[in-house]
Write the structure tokens for this entry.
Amino acid sequence: MYDLLLKNLEVVRPGRDTVESLDVAITDGRFAALEPDIAPDQARETRDCSGLTAFPGLVDTHMHVGIYSPLAQDAVTESKAAAMGGVTTALTYFRTGQYYLNEGGSYRDFYPKVLDISADNYWVDYAYHLAPIASSHIDEMEYLLTEQGVSSFKIFMFYGGYGLHGKSDKGAQREFLMIGEDDSYDIAHFEFIMRSASRLMKKFPDIADQISVSLHCELADILNAYTKIVQREGKLTGLRAYSAARPPHSEGLAIWIASYLAYETECLNINLLHLTSRKAVEAAMMMEKTFPHINFGKEVTIGHLLLDYDAPTQCHAKVNPPIRSREDVEFLWEAVINGTLNWVVSDHACCSEELKVSGQDHTDGDNIWVSKSGFGGTEYLLSGLFSEGRKRGLSLPHMARLVCLAPAQRYGLNNKGDIEVGLDADLAILDPGKTFTVRAAESESAQGYTPFEGMELSGQVVSTYLRGSLVYDDGKVTGPARGEYQARPSARRQG
């Protein structure tokens, strides 16, 4: 007997040419059978899903849970938001320093605290990418990989001389990162992170292809210079001003530096995060041609695909790197469709209204310089891609690769990202004919607003299954918190 039988689904699987009409049987939290017609009496529970489309549970590999609110609180509300969008696995970027736990020190002391706080607070499965901030963290990367299941590490290229929300001096940044006088968060530090990752790839060849370094590619020197120019001239406001202050060529130049460092250190897997512009994507393509032996992962966010810098929500859409022009948005879509960009994420960072505009003159709602950076959006990841992607001819299997299989494979989630016998029975079930208007008030997120407010999207997630258990259904999160920590790379189970 199967535990659960979902009948009459249109099943979307990455790598397939077509969508198949199948019944999906689940036992012990895994896919047990995928066949055109399974008898209902073979299952303890049967559900008719006629007219609905099943994607693998989404793997949102770029989130920031616990950045603006306590982790224990944020994990609950933001994982519920993830579940309502069909996301079943959330990978969060985490680090020492201000925000997050507001602690410095070693990862041997810090990371177990993160895991203790996380336990029983996630409604979806979860894992963490970690950023080596202090030089001592570099020596802990092997411990994090072998004992804690952390196979991906992050570099924030602008942190050395520019703030999270705007320009900053070196002293303030050192305080922000909570590092000592002997530490420098600079290009040399980035090099040594890559050298350490390279050593791990060589030491553990069986998992080498799922060990990687991810980079936020912007250069502080460019950001500082252009912020000063834009503020002094005073010709631009809102998102246009912020884009000009963090110009696209800063991304491009950072990508060149990161790529050469990867070449120099033989760090063969690097991920270029949240590419926002034609210049950034073209720089990545140039580097791929220059260093063909390096495996580049190229990421884009749903925010940069749905919003441009004339969006009416303005300061609510402040994020790093910035929202760009409509021309850049359409170029990103072309790069998604032709396969240049490898996966799509949310970069979800719940920032409440009070924090977003703290210190702002409330008579001037467009003062971009004092708004906090980041916003949520994991709950709109699939619907946004489905709605706008279909208009541009993006196939459903390609969508499944972008938000399910490709990120799962890159980051060592080997039982996620596909609908296949033996894998975790994670499903995002979509009503393709259902159109809805985005309203922040209807989200499970604690944010209270969204820069996507008022957008009309087609294709709404109606049910989400996590390892065979219903965690979201008919507009409501269901059951207890079932999310489990995913140590990576995970051993792939066979059907």
